[in-house]
Write a structure and sequence with these properties.
It contains two helices and no strands. The relative contact order is 0.06. The protein is mainly alpha-helical. The protein has one domain.
Length: about 190
């Protein structure tokens, strides 16, 4: 009878140990599950905040682009009005010289020669002004293209840096999780 009691006590102790072990495993799984759940929540929040920051940076860049475009347009309009005013001054100069020639008492051939000379000079200046305007427009276009390229490259660089930062953070978090798991397993 004694033998049976000892076996029963031994079996009971084994049962208690196995129940304790299963409870411990269950609690450990529960804590691991809640830890994993919180980790996922934190990662989602980190993802959303990073996404918001990137979007706000893109919005800022777009606003800056719009401002620069508007500034360039206003400067171009200012340049156009300035060249238009200069052209008007040149035309007035030519009109005054032709009126002065008409008021003088010279022969008709002299008048025609001088008028042809002034018309020729006026044509040269108009051609030169037109060429300069075309060159000015091309310069502005090239500057705008260069500015857009610089801004897009800056945006790409910013995006790459942010992706690198996010990757480093994810690596740190995953490394710390694996470290904690190894530590708990031991």
């Amino acid at each position: 009878m004694m033998y049976n009691e000892n076996v029963m006590k031994n079996d009971l102790n084994k049962l208690k140990k196995s129940i304790f072990f299963f409870c411990f495993v269950y609690v450990f799984k529960y804590f691991l599950f809640t830890f994993y759940k919180r980790l996922i929540q934190i990662q989602n929040l980190l993802h959303e905040s990073t996404k918001d920051i990137i979007e706000s940076k893109f919005d800022l860049r777009n606003a800056e682009k719009q401002w620069l475009n508007e500034k360039d347009q206003l400067l171009q309009e200012l340049d156009k009005t300035t060249t238009h005013e200069l052209r008007k001054d040149d035309e007035i100069l030519f009109l005054n010289t032709s009126n002065h020639i008409q008021n003088t008492s010279t022969t008709a051939s002299l008048l025609l020669q001088e008028n042809a000379y002034f018309e020729e000079e006026k044509k040269k200046y108009e051609d030169e002004i037109h060429a300069l305007e075309q060159q000015h427009v091309q310069t502005h276009k090239l500057a705008e293209m260069y500015r857009n390229q610089v801004i897009s490259l800056e945006e790409q660089l910013c995006k790459i840096r942010e992706e690198g930062d996010v990757t480093r953070e994810i690596y740190k978090v995953s490394f710390s999780i694996s470290y904690l798991e190894r530590k708990r397993i031991k």
